[in-house]
């Protein structure tokens, strides 16, 4: 479970759970940072593709990033004198946390202690560094498995959009 819709819906659910228990509404722009946080760790895919490095799941899937990204957001919005700076940083952090949580359900896990070696997964615990290979690498069996995960992800996204439509949250 490591594709865009899964993470989008994960961050959205975290926001809904927060709203339910805190009895507070998340502001319009804070929602943006929550959703952004849910997707941001996988922006390293772009670096993979553009530069041909295999950097996926390194720093952006670690505690270090979970601390640094919200801190940077806080500093940036302090400079811009935005009164919501604290909220933006917290919701960005919450989004990243949901991403790391969901990715920990994959078999190879995430390098949570990066730059220290080792991958964490809920299934296999801590394992030594094992590069997963690029998204589009692997034998036919591996690629077929990834394709199936992609289709599941599309189904999650489609179901979510229909749910929002059904609840009259969006209109076509
Ligand atoms: Zn990820």
Can you walk through the features of this model?
The protein is mainly alpha-helical. It has one domain. The protein is 59% helix and 3% strand. It has 6 helices and 2 strands, in the order αααααββα. A two-stranded antiparallel sheet has the order 1-2. A hairpin with a 3-residue loop joins β1 (119-121) and β2. The protein is globular and about 50 Å long. The protein starts with a helix and ends in a 6-residue tail after the last helix. The mean pLDDT is 89. Residues 2, 41-42, 61, 99, 103 line the site of zinc ion.
Indicate the topology:
Blueprint (H helix, E strand, L loop, with lengths): L3 H19 L5 H12 L4 H8 L11 H17 L5 H19 L15 E3 L3 E3 L12 H27 L6
Antiparallel strand pairs: 1-2
Zinc ion binds next to helix 5.
Distance between the termini: 28 Å
Q: Largest sheet, order of strands side by side?
A: 1-2
What percent of the residues sit in helical stretches (DSSP H or I)? 55-70%
Low-confidence regions: none
Whole-angstrom Rg: 17 Å
Mean pLDDT value: 89
Structural class: mainly alpha
How many DSSP-defined strands? 2
Largest sheet: 2 strands, antiparallel
Bound ligands, each once: zinc ion
Domains counted in the coordinates: how many? 1
Share of residues in strands: under 5%
């Amino acid at each position: 479970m490591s594709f865009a819709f899964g993470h989008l819906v994960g961050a959205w659910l975290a926001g809904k759970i927060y709203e339910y228990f805190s009895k507070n509404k998340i502001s319009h722009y804070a929602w943006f940072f929550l959703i952004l946080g849910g997707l941001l760790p996988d922006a390293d895919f772009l670096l993979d593709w553009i530069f041909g490095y295999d950097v996926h799941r390194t720093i952006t899937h670690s505690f270090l990033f979970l601390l640094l990204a919200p801190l940077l957001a806080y500093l940036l919005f302090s400079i811009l004198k935005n009164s919501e700076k604290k909220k933006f940083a917290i919701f960005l952090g919450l989004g990243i946390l949901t991403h790391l949580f969901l990715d920990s359900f994959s078999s190879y896990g995430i390098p949570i202690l990066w730059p220290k070696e080792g991958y964490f997964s809920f299934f296999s615990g801590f394992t030594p560094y094992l590069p997963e290979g690029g998204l589009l690498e692997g034998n036919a069996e591996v690629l077929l498995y990834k394709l199936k995960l992609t289709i599941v992800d599309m189904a999650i996204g489609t179901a979510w959009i229909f749910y929002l439509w059904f609840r009259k949250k969006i209109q076509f």
